[in-house]
Every structure is written in structure tokens, then in C-alpha cells.
Amino acid sequence: MSVIKALELFRKELGSEIEILADQHNGAFIEYAKRWTDIGRKTPAAIVVPSSEIQIQKTVKWAVENSVPFVTKSGGHSEWSTIDSSGIIIDLSKYSSIEVNAAEQKATLRGSILAKQVSVALAEVGLFTALGNGNPIGAIPYFLNGGASVVTSCVGYGSDQILSARMIDARGNLIEVTDSEKDMADLLWALRGAGQFFGLITELTVKAYPFSALGNDQGVIWTGVFILPLERAGEVAEAMNIVANDSTHPTSGLMMIMAPPPKNDPALVISARYRGNPENAAQAYKPLYDLNPLMANGAPVPIQNTSDGHEAFNEKGTFKRFATTCLPHFNATAIPDVVQLWKTMVTECPDAITTSFNFQWDSRLAPVPAHAPSSCSSLRDTRLWQNNFIWHTDVNSRNKVDEFSDRAIAAMRGDGERREFQNATREGPIELRYRDPVKLAKLKQLKQVWDPNGVYTRQLLDG
Ligand SMILES: Cc1cc2nc3c(=O)[nH]c(=O)nc-3n(C[C@H](O)[C@H](O)[C@H](O)COP(=O)(O)OP(=O)(O)OC[C@H]3O[C@@H](n4cnc5c(N)ncnc54)[C@H](O)[C@@H]3O)c2cc1C
After folding, report:
1. CA distance 423 to 406
2. Model confidence pLDDT, tens digit, residues 396-419
3. Which residues of the chain register pLDDT less than 50?
4. pLDDT at residue 307 in the model
5. Ranges for the FAD-binding PCMH-type domain (predicted)?
6. Which of 156, 178, 208, 252 could lock 362 by a disulfide, CB 3.0 to 4.6 Å apart?
7. pLDDT score for 16
């Protein structure tokens, strides 16, 4: 049956109950179809907007029974919550909530709850968890496929925080995924790092921590910015080499080759974080202060506000992408070459002036949290990244900007092993994202059990 025909039946059966948008010219349809990025964005046959768990389940069941392909959308920040007219989007915007259990230090997240909403609700009772750098990111997908954050070095990755889930599987069944039974424990293991490929998670319960785990009782992260001229790239790279590799201080952040708005004057901008006693930040960043930057500031910021002020980056539309890859080491000598690549790119593609080539570091490795059994993620040996932020407005620059970014990544990687991050890409050999062959074999076997026909993507089935 065609998707249009199937939709007609769905509308007859459930149209009065569940919102179904099928007119591409309708204002609501246009709004719901928008994404953080236009890269790869497609127009679906319909957008279904359920508002309860039972409605979500009915929608999945109908789609599975009628062989209608679908994708789920939470915060809409990936390139994968989009589908062409052969299928539909299940948009969770109307299903969103959080329940914090302060006594048991955990939180239950539902539907499309966003990262900022989670961090604010936790902070109200003196708790935090591992949340990423974007306030409007869907918290559930972020946790499912990895989740790097400013607190990785004290509590592990987002996927390490997952305690249990409620999931609609590829047959449309709603199941409780807990550690209590062997089958479910294996599935929970898979959700911790590859959860976007196993089902639609309606509810995720995650671990939270008291502020004291940050190394201060105020719930703050020291947050600072250093700005230096691009011409000093060599010296800055040497200073960053010291900071990024000094594990006596819990620092993390990004060194960005960019042209910060509003003036768009090219510069090296270091967005710096210090987790612990904020008074020690000056010592940790001494190599940068010693360079007498054009600007250097920093102050303790409540953890739930550390990603504020990025509103311009959060706007929907235009061509944006994080080209993120793990680095085996910091290749300081490559930085001047990367600066040159960035300069050439903005000369050839002036519309990409807001693109930045970024080195990201965490001075400490992620620990294995005491509460979490092993997960399928293989990020534990990673604390350095190239995290280029691609942003341009002209579609004709699409391939060229990616090519420059790839060359910058290759320069930073040098001869080092290639490792990819499962929250950043679905391209290339899956072995680069799930690098432990034993874990990968188990993941593929679990995919055969839970989703052999690739209802929730063909990841782990092909290749
Ligand atoms: C500005 C920005 C900042 C970021 N910062 C970080 C960071 O600091 N750390 C980090 O690790 N990552 C970061 N990311 C990556 C981000 O965490 C992932 O792309 C995340 O999957 C986006 O989730 P979303 O709900 O916003 O996107 P969506 O596009 O809505 O969903 C992402 C994927 O998950 C699927 N999905 C959606 N809802 C569900 C569900 N309930 N159950 C199962 N699958 C579902 C979708 O189909 C899609 O494939 C960042 C991305 C951006 C754009």
C-alpha cells in the first residue's frame, strides 16, 4: 500500500485523536519540518505529532504494520530526523516532561525534553548530570548515542548515565528496559551508546549527581574566553599543548580558528572551562594568560547556564554541521596549517565566514562510573577531538567547505588512528565508531534480535 493510502486509513482510524500534518504548504507543517540544519533535509509525506506514549505507540504500530518508513524527531539537531515522501516523521514535540527524584539522585526524561530543561530541573534540587553543549538538543538522543560534556572527566559520558528506559520496539511493542532480566540487560547495554538504532525511547531514566561531585558546592563551572590574533597560532598551539595535556587540572574546552561576530575579524578564540575550585582556574590557564591575550575573561557560572549565549548558533536552517572526530593526540605543529586552510576556505567561500575549525580537549579521561555496567561505547580512551563547526549559507559551497574541513581534520590527525564519534556521524565504516570488535559483534547480534528489518535505521545491519 502507498504511504498516502496508508495515511488515509490512519487518519480515519486515529485522525481525531492524533495530530497528522500532511499538507506541505500548511504553516504548521512548514514549522515542524524545519531543522537545525538544512543539510540533507527532506520533505516527508506527513508529520505525525502524538501527545502521549500510547499515541506514539499506536503511530509506530500503524507504520510497522503498513510498512511505512518513519524517523523520530526530538530536538531536531541531527541530519537523521528527516525523511523523504516515502515516509513520515514522528515528532515528539508535544510529548515532553521530566521528573526528578532528588532522594535517589536520578531523573526520568520523556519524549523531546531538551538539554537545558533537564539541567535547570536538576539544578533546582542541587543536582547535575552529563549534558552537552547545546541548550535545545534533545536530551534523550544525546544520552543514547554517547554524550560528551563538560563533566565527562568526573562522571563519564551521557550514555554512562542511563539506568533504564521505556522503548517501542520494531514490532510496535512497548517494553521496559532494565537490568533485571538477561535479555533486557543486554538491550540496555546496547542503548548505552547505540540506542538510536534499537527503538523509539519514550522514557529514559538517568543518574544525577550532587553539586559536590563537580569539586565545589556551588554547582559552578569556571567559564572563560581568551582571544589572540591568528598570526600567533604557533605560540598559542604550544601553550594549548601544555594546558590540554596537564591532567593535574580538570580543564576542557575548544580552541577555535574563527571570525567572531559582530566584526568577523579572524582570531583564535579559546572557550575554556575549569571544573573544580574556580580559584584554581588562573593557575591551570597560566600558559594562556602568559601570552597576554587581546582579551581574557572568566568567572564561575552555574552549570545549567554554561551553554547560554549561543542563541545565534541554535537558529534553525542554513547549512550547519559539526564535523567531529576523535584525535589520538594534539598535533600542535599542524595548527598553523589549519589556520591557513581556514583562511583559504573563507576566501573561496565568503558565505562560510561563520565556520570555525576547532580543537577540543578534556585534560582527563572519562572514568567508568561506579554505578554503570559496561556500555557498547568505545570512547573511553578519547579526550581530544577535532570538532569543526561548519556553517555557510550558499548551497554551492556545500562540498567545498566539507573538503576544507576534512583536510583540517587530516592535518590534525596526522598519522594517528582514525576514530569517529557515534553522535556526530553515520557515515564511514561502523568499526570506526564502535571500535571494540567484541562489542560490535554483540551489537550486530542484538540488532538482529530487536530490529532485523532496519525499522530504526539500517545501522548495524549493512556492512
Ligand atoms: C549545536 C549542537 C551542539 C551539540 N553538542 C553536543 C555535545 O556537547 N555533546 C554531544 O555528545 N553531542 C552534541 N551534539 C550532538 C547531539 O547530541 C546529537 O546530534 C543528538 O542526537 C541530537 O539530538 P536531537 O534530539 O536534537 O536531534 P534529532 O534530530 O531530533 O534526533 C537525533 C537522532 O535520534 C533519533 N531520535 C530522536 N528521538 C528519539 C527517541 N526518543 N528515541 C530514539 N531515537 C530518537 C532521531 O531519529 C535521529 O536519528 C550537538 C549537536 C549540535 C547541533
Report:
1. 18
2. 999 999 999 999 999 999 998 899
3. none
4. 95
5. 40-211
6. 252
7. 84
Q: Which amino acid is at 158?
A: G
pLDDT score recorded for residue 15: 78
**C-alpha 222: how far from chain center:** 22
77: number of CA atoms within 13 Å, CB side? 21
Strand partners, 255: 270, 359
Of residues 88, 58, 84, the one with CA closest to residue 73? 88
The CATH-assigned architecture of domain 3-94 is: 2-Layer Sandwich (3.30)
Q: Cβ neighbours of residue 196 under 8 Å, at least 6 residues apart?
A: 80, 141, 144, 145, 456, 457
Q: What is the pLDDT of residue 14?
A: 83
Q: How far is the CA of 336 from the centre of ligand 1 (A)?
A: 32
Kind and range of the H or E element at 88? strand 88-91
Other CB atoms within 10 A of residue 177 CB:
28
Ligand 1 pocket, 73 CB below 6 A? yes
* Model pLDDT, residue 369: 87
* Ligand 1: centre distance to CA 360 (Å): 19
- Look up residue 463 and give its DSSP letter: -
Q: Whose CA is nearest to atom 1 of ligand 1?
A: 134
Question: Coil, helix or strand for 378?
Answer: coil
Predicted pLDDT at 48 = 97
C-alpha–C-alpha distance, residues 164 and 154, integer Å: 21
List of residues 6+ apart from 361 with CB closer than 8 A: 240, 243, 244, 251, 252, 253, 255, 330, 383, 384, 385
- For ligand 1, whether the C-beta of 133 sits within 6 Å is yes
| CATH code of domain 96-212+439-450 | 3.30.465.10
Domain ranges for the chain: 3-94, 96-212+439-450, 217-420
Tell me the CATH architecture of domain 217-420: 3-Layer(aba) Sandwich (3.40)
Q: Select from 397, 395, 396, 393 the least CA-distant residue to 405.
A: 397
Are 232 and 291 in contact by the 8 Å Cβ rule? The answer is yes
pLDDT at 312: 84
Helix (H, G, I), strand (E, B) or coil at 197: helix
